[in-house]
Amino acid sequence: MMLTPAHHFRNIERKPEYLQLEKCMPPPYPGPVGTMWFIRDGCGIACAIVTWFLVLYAEFVVLFVMLIPSRDYAYSIINGIMFNLLAFLALASHCRAMLTDPGAVPKGNATKEFIESLQLKPGQVVYKCPKCCSIKPDRAHHCSVCKRCIRKMDHHCPWVNNCVGENNQKYFVLFTMYIALISLHALVMVGVHFLHCFEEDWTKCSSFSPPTTVILLILLCFEALLFLIFTSVMFGTQVHSICTDETGIERLQHKDRQQQARSWQPLKETFGGDFSLNWCNPFSGQPEIPPDKDLVRQVSQSDTDDTLATEEPTGTTDEEPVEVMDA
C-alpha cells in the first residue's frame, strides 16, 4: 500500500490524546542483563515448532534411511558430518534469530522529561508512536505482533517467531542460507539413493520396507525442494536489501530515500566487521546499538509546515505504524 503524505503527517488534532506526553508512562524497570527475548505469539511458536520438526524429520531420513544402511562407509561418514554440521548451524541460527532482540525501542520512553533531555535544536523533531508510546527512531516501524517499534524493521517472520530488524538480520540471513544448503544436500542424497536402489535390490538399500522407504524419500524430496526454493528467494532478497540499504517495508512504501552505491559497508555493519568466518558464525555477537541512535531527525521546511506544533518545544508528531509479514 502506497502511503500518501497525509499518512506520514496526519492532522494530529484528530487524536489529541496522542500529543499529551504526560499520558506516557515511564518505561518499566529494565530486566537483568542478558534477559532472553521471546515473543509469546501462538502462530509464531507453532511455526517455529514446525520448522524444528521438519529439520529433525530430514535428519531422521538422511541418517536412518540413507546413510546408516549404506555399505559405503566413507560416503556415509562424509555426508553425515556435512549434513549434521549444516543442520546444527541452521537450528543455531534459528534460535539466535528468534531469541535476539531485533532492535526494539524502549517502550514508553516518550515522556516529557526524556524528550526535554534531548535538547532539540531548531529544525529537529522526534516522532512518537501512539501504539507503544515510544520515540520512533528514523527507519523504525511498529510491529503489531511484537507490540514494539523495531529499528530498521524488515518484516515480521512467523517462522522465527520474531521481527527481522537491525540486531538479528544476520542470524535470519544465516538461517535461510543454511536451510537452503541442507535442502540442496538432501535432494542430492535422495537422488543418489534412488539410483542406488534401482540398480540393486530395494530390500538391501534400506532397513525399512521398500514402500516405507519410497514414501519417506518422496516426502523428504518435496520438503527439501519447497524449502530450497523458499529460503533461496528469502536469502537473495535479504542480501539485496542489505546491499542497497533498503528494508522490505521501505521498498513496499516506495519511500524516497537517498540511494547509496552498493558496497561492502552495509554488509560489514550487518555481519560485524570485515569479511571472515565470523560472517557465517551464528554464535558471534553483534555490535551494541546506542539507545539514543537516530531518535532525533532533521526535517525540511516543507515537512515542518505539515507538522502541527505542540506546546512543548519537541516537535512531536503522530506517525502511522506499518508492518508486513512474510509467508
UniProtKB/TrEMBL annotation:
Example GO molecular function: protein-cysteine S-palmitoyltransferase activity
Bias type Acidic residues, positions: 317-327
Superkingdom of origin: Eukaryota
EC code(s) of this entry: 2.3.1.225
Subcellular localization(s) per the UniProt record: Membrane
InterPro entries: Palmitoyltrfase_DHHC, PFA4/ZDH16/20/ERF2-like
Membrane-traversing stretches: 45-67, 73-92, 171-194, 214-235
Catalytic activity entry: L-cysteinyl-[protein] + hexadecanoyl-CoA = S-hexadecanoyl-L-cysteinyl-[protein] + CoA
Entry note about domains: The DHHC domain is required for palmitoyltransferase activity.
Protein name per the record: Palmitoyltransferase
Organism classification: Eukaryota, Metazoa, Chordata, Craniata, Vertebrata
